[in-house]
From TrEMBL:
Identification of the protein by name: Major intracellular serine protease
GO MF term (any one): peptidase activity
Presence of keyword Aminoacyl-tRNA synthetase: no
Sequence ranges assigned to domain Peptidase S8/S53 in this UniProt record: 24-247
Top-level taxon in the UniProt lineage: Bacteria
Entry keyword set: Hydrolase, Protease, Serine protease
Family: Belongs to the peptidase S8 family.
Enzyme Commission (EC) number: 3.4.21.-
InterPro entries linked to this entry: Peptidase_S8/S53_dom (IPR000209), Peptidase_S8/S53_dom_sf (IPR036852), Peptidase_S8/S53_subtilisin (IPR051048), Peptidase_S8_subtilisin-rel (IPR015500), Subtilisin_Carlsberg-like (IPR034202)
First-tier enzyme category under EC: hydrolase
Pfam family, one: Peptidase_S8
Keyword Protease assigned: yes
GO annotation, biological process: proteolysis
Length: 288
């Protein structure tokens, strides 16, 4: 049986799967701890990968920490009857391993990975359309900001989680980067009842919210896990962007720019009544 987790259903992804071809043809660059590429629902999902960390050789993007495998499953676990289904089951992942053995990311490694992904080309000349970056820091790094601007100039939509330092008070700002850069799509978290998650950051750069509590996904050793955090909203939003990209390209008969894809995502939101600093435009819902 294919299990469609609640978070995929909440944003109504299955209702647009047929028309969007489940994200087929869209390449998402995933900046993570690596991915278990032979997980039963992830085999064949990865179009390429490279390791920019100190954990293994450049060709070794295996996941020894587990977080990346979980992010990959949320985004693109395929519907093969063996487990959960991701948000965009036919999207392809370019895995960029940027976390070292200690679970930290070096700025220079992250920037190298971003530039690699910007200019990467697939076997059929595919290009990256979306950056999914489930990572963050309280520090503002100008070099990181410049790398994000390079991605956007190259028509890549950059998506980050808002951060997990929130206090459910929209009047107090919790700042995390790169989510707070204006060029980045910053995604906050809601729980299964569509309430703002207790940990989700609030600030004026929040673009919208997505499920981020009790998210069932893939885990190392071909297992499954349930986790919470705004990192989980990143692959949900990235998968949604892949679906919306295909919907709109069919409708308009051409490829979408980064700004057009961002606009189309924001159009597919429903206000929850928490105010802009907590929810941005509202909850991501793919049917209008």
């Amino acid at each position: 049986m294919n299990e469609i987790p609640y978070h995929v259903q909440m944003i109504k992804a299955p209702e647009v799967w047929e028309q969007s071809e489940q994200g087929c043809g869209v390449v998402v660059a995933l900046f993570v701890t690596g991915v278990q590429d032979d997980h039963p629902v992830l085999e064949g999902v990865i179009i390429g990968g490279r390791n920019f960390s100190d954990d293994g050789t450049p060709e070794d993007y295996s996941d020894r920490l587990g977080h990346g495998t979980s992010m990959a499953g949320i985004l693109a676990a395929k519907a093969n009857g063996q487990g959960i289904v991701g948000t965009a089951p036919k999207a392809k992942l370019l895995v960029l391993k940027v976390f070292g053995q200690d679970g930290s990311v070096k700025l220079e490694d992250l920037i190298r990975a971003m530039d690699y992904a910007i200019f990467w080309r697939g076997p059929q000349n595919e290009r990256v359309k979306i950056f999914a970056m489930p990572l963050g820091s309280p520090m503002d790094y100008p070099l990181l900001h410049e790398a994000i601007k390079r991605a956007v100039v190259n028509q890549i939509l950059v998506i980050c989680g808002a951060g997990n330092e929130g206090d459910q008070n929209g009047a107090t700002n919790e700042i995390a980067y790169p989510a707070c850069y204006p060029e980045v799509v910053s995604v906050g978290a809601v729980d299964p009842n569509k309430h703002i998650a207790r940990f989700s950051n609030s600030n004026n750069e929040i673009d919208f919210v997505a499920p981020g509590v009790d998210i069932k996904t893939t885990a190392r050793d071909s297992k499954y896990i349930t986790l919470s955090g705004t990192a989980s909203t990143v692959p949900i939003a990235a998968g949604a962007a892949a679906l919306v990209n295909n919907l709109c390209e069919k409708e308009y008969g051409r490829s979408l720019s980064e700004s057009e894809l961002y606009f189309e995502l924001c159009k597919r939101t429903v206000p929850l009544g928490y105010g802009k600093s907590l929810e941005g435009h509202g909850l991501l819902v793919l049917t209008r």
